[in-house]
Amino acid sequence: MKRIAITGANGFVASVIRLYGSGRYEFIPITRKEIDFSRPETVYPYLSGLKYDVLIHTAANAVTEFCAANPELAHAINVESAIEAARAAKDQNARFVFISTEQVFNGRSDKGPFKETDEPVCVTNYGNYKLEGERYIQENLEDYLILRLSSMFGLPMPGVRPSSNFLMRTWKALKSETPAKFTPNEQRGMTYIMHLADHLSEILELPSGIYHISSRNDLSTYDLCRRIAEVLGYGEEAIQKYILSDTERYADRFRDYRLDGTRLREAGIDLGTMEEDLERCLKDFGWKE
């Protein structure tokens, strides 16, 4: 049985991977209790003391506002510690799996979806930090995967606390009858987290390189959340009242950071569409028959 060390082990992505991969892999969970990723000098010594076949590095601070307000600290967490983790994996002859983001394309002015070969352009510290980590890995490692994730969604389950996502935000707005704003000036992917659980074994065996993990979506964020409300069974009156269009957000420039998943499909892994993901998630949790 392969041994997989996984950082950020209590986070959304890592929790799902661990929960559904527990019968196939031996996981070594690494949390803030084991490593303080704000202190990069502690990362390599700790990881070098473990034995593993694969190191999945999910640990990061992905809060855009935090990264903008604390650039040095955010760089230490998101770049310097990632590099130390990559060095440790390389010296163990282990495969290094780096979790990156759609946000590496948040500065592009043209339309997506973007392929792995398209040039990233970032306008946020977080996106640039992930891109810096990607480039180090590509230049210094041979056995690696860089997985750029779209916005991942799911619902709470034992041992798994989802990150804030469009499904939960839309449902909470409607359930609590509290209006929420969503921008029509943005397009991005919304991918069911269970795809990572379903295809983990196949993904880990892919040739080294960058891969986009995203289902297909052609709706703006506002229209996407309207669609979620419809699928949840709400009528037009409630949708108009509680799912509001935030036309001011990104009014200066339309943002499109959708990821093209063609390379993954060519490897036999088809993540389908946002609509299919939404239907499956609601059925999985008994919200829909």
Q: Label the structural class.
A: alpha/beta
- End-to-end C-alpha gap: 37 Å
Q: What percentage of residues falls in helices of 4 or more residues?
A: 25-40%
β-strand percent reads 15-25%
CATH topology of one domain: Rossmann fold
Assigned CATH architecture of one domain: 3-Layer(aba) Sandwich
The shape is globular
Write down the CATH class of one domain: Alpha Beta
CATH homologous superfamily classification of one domain = NAD(P)-binding Rossmann-like Domain
Order of helices and strands: EHEHEHHEHEEHEEEHEHHEEHH
- Radius of gyration based on Cα positions: 19 Å
Describe the structure.
- With 289 residues, this protein is α/β, with parallel strands linked by helices.
- The chain has a domain at 3-162 and 191-217 and 258-272: NAD(P)-binding Rossmann-like Domain (Rossmann fold).
- 39% of the residues lie in helices and 17% in strands.
- The chain contains eleven helices and twelve strands.
- Strands 2-1-3-4-5-10 form a six-stranded parallel β-sheet, with helices on both faces. It has a two-stranded parallel sheet with strand order 6-9.
- Helix 1 links the parallel strand 1 (3-7) and strand 2.
- Helix 1 (12-21) packs across helix 7 (194-204), helix 4 packs parallel to helix 5 and helix 6 crosses helix 8 (221-231).
- The two termini are 37 Å apart.
- The mean pLDDT is 96.
